[in-house]
Structure formats: structure tokens, C-alpha cells
Design a protein that fits this description.
alpha+beta; D-Maltodextrin-Binding Protein, domain 2; 2 domains
Length: about 270
């Protein structure tokens, strides 16, 4: 297994364990300047990941860490892009649809991604090193990565569907995204619409359980980088909705444009 992938997987699992430590306990909810929620689980997961990735010597861009200015970041040939707790609203609602996202970016593109859903003990991962993506349900062998890797299922897990399956945000479905979904209905007839929280929407596309995930509400680079790597290694694509080029990273502005994640055969 790729050494950096191994480090990222271990970091994601450790952060997930830290998040679950707070899941069923009372916690306060703070709010950032953009009105997004923040909890002790976000902060503590960030601390766990930052410590775990420090050994690589690769700089870190985390939602909950220091956001270095572009004048500094533009010289980084590689960087980790991390969302320690993606789907904080889902965490607060206790619906189990939140994830830990860790990506390695080289040349403005994600080349390694780990997405971990702690309540489901479900791990998605992929990298350019293996040129594949995998899904794994953790079990008693979760401390032995080699055994884990042997038990992982290669993505996509193709499922034959009679209608187009579209996955949309559970907490951030705006009018522009709704209009796009209406266009898909007009093109394809009846569609199967699924709502899901956090980066699990990407994971449904990577699995083949969903065909397309359109998103025109605001997201940041840490919301998408890890899951984009998983989707791409599973044979899908995550495209800028205007240029139809893959989303790029370590930009001047860390805000993403609208995008479409999809199985390539849906175009």
C-alpha cells in the first residue's frame, strides 16, 4: 500500500474515533463568520489529523486550521487538504451522515483521497498509486491495514438501475441545483432522487449507486478534494459546471465553482 495512503487512512480512522467520543455527549455549537456550525468534535478531529500528518512534512490546508495566504501556498508542490468533520449539521442532528475527508493534492489535482464515515465504520479510499478506489467496512482487523486492504471492495459496485439516480444535498439544496435536477427530469423522464449528507453523496457516485451529483450551492476545496479523488479513481469525474474541466485546488480563492460529479457514462 502507498505509504502516504496508509498514513491518511490511519489519520481518518483516528479522527473518526475522536469524533464519536463526542457524538452522544452534550456539546456546544458555535458559529463561524459564514454562519456554519462548529463543535468540539470539529476542533479535536482537526488536532488528531494535523498531528498524524505532521510526519509527512507536507503542508496542511484544513477547514479548521490556519488558512495560509496564496502567496505562500502557491509555492507548495504538494499539500494535504482536509475537512476534519464534513457535515457538521448532520453530526448535530445525529443522523450519522458525516465524514472525515483527507486528500493529497499535487499540481492542483487530488491524487489521493480518504473518506471515512465513523458511525457506519465505512471507509472509501483511492490513489494514483493503485489507480483504483475501494470501499471497506471496518471490523476487528481494522488495526491491520494489509488485511483491511485485502477485504476492500473495488469501486464501482455496479448496480443496474431502470432510471437515472440523482443524489442531492440534505442540508444545502438551493434553487439553482433544483432547477438543474428539473432539467434532468425533462431529459430522462422519471428520475430517482436521493438525499444524503456530507461527502457521502460523492461516495454514492463512486459506488455506482448514484449516477450524478450536481451542486451549485457554495462549497470549499476541503469539502470536495478527498471525495473527488475517490470518484475519479472509481472511473467517474467531478467537473466545473461552467468549464467542464475537473475541479482544481490550491486556488487563490478556496471557494469552489458549481460542479457536477458523475459516472462518465451519464453524459
Amino acid at each position: 500500500m502507498d505509504h502516504l495512503l496508509e498514513i491518511a487512512i490511519n489519520a481518518a480512522i483516528a479522527a473518526g474515533n475522536e469524533i464519536m467520543r463526542h457524538y452522544d455527549k452534550p456539546f456546544e455549537v458555535d458559529y463561524k463568520s459564514d454562519s456554519s456550525p462548529l463543535t468540539i468534535a470539529d476542533r479535536s478531529a482537526h488536532a488528531v489529523i494535523a498531528e498524524a500528518l505532521k510526519v509527512t512534512g507536507i503542508p496542511l490546508l484544513s477547514e479548521e486550521g490556519k488558512h495560509h495566504p496564496f502567496e505562500e501556498r502557491k509555492h507548495w508542490k504538494r499539500l494535504w487538504i482536509v475537512d476534519p468533520l464534513d457535515g457538521t449539521k448532520e453530526f448535530i442532528k445525529h443522523n450519522g451522515e458525516f465524514t472525515v475527508n483527507i486528500a493529497l493534492v499535487e499540481g492542483n489535482q487530488p491524487v489521493l483521497g480518504v473518506v471515512y464515515c465513523p458511525p457506519l465504520k465505512t471507509l472509501y479510499f483511492g490513489s494514483n498509486h493503485v489507480k483504483k478506489a475501494f470501499k471497506l467496512i471496518l471490523n476487528e482487523n481494522s488495526n491491520d491495514l494489509e488485511k483491511m486492504f485485502d477485504q476492500a471492495v473495488t469501486l464501482p459496485i455496479l448496480q443496474k438501475k431502470e432510471s437515472l439516480t440523482v443524489v442531492a444535498s440534505k442540508s444545502h439544496l438551493n434553487q439553482e441545483t433544483s432547477d438543474y435536477i428539473d432539467q434532468l427530469k425533462a431529459q430522462h423522464g422519471n428520475i430517482n432522487l436521493v438525499s444524503k449528507g456530507s461527502s457521502l453523496k460523492f461516495c454514492l457516485v463512486a459506488e455506482g449507486a448514484a449516477d450524478i451529483y450536481p451542486r451549485f450551492a457554495p462549497t470549499y476545496e476541503w469539502d470536495t478534494a478527498a471525495a473527488q479523488a475517490v470518484v475519479e479513481m472509481a472511473g467517474g469525474e467531478v467537473l466545473n459546471a461552467e468549464t467542464f474541466f475537473p475541479l482544481s485546488y490550491n486556488k487563490v480563492n478556496l471557494l469552489n465553482p458549481g460542479f457536477i460529479a458523475q459516472r462518465k457514462y451519464t453524459r
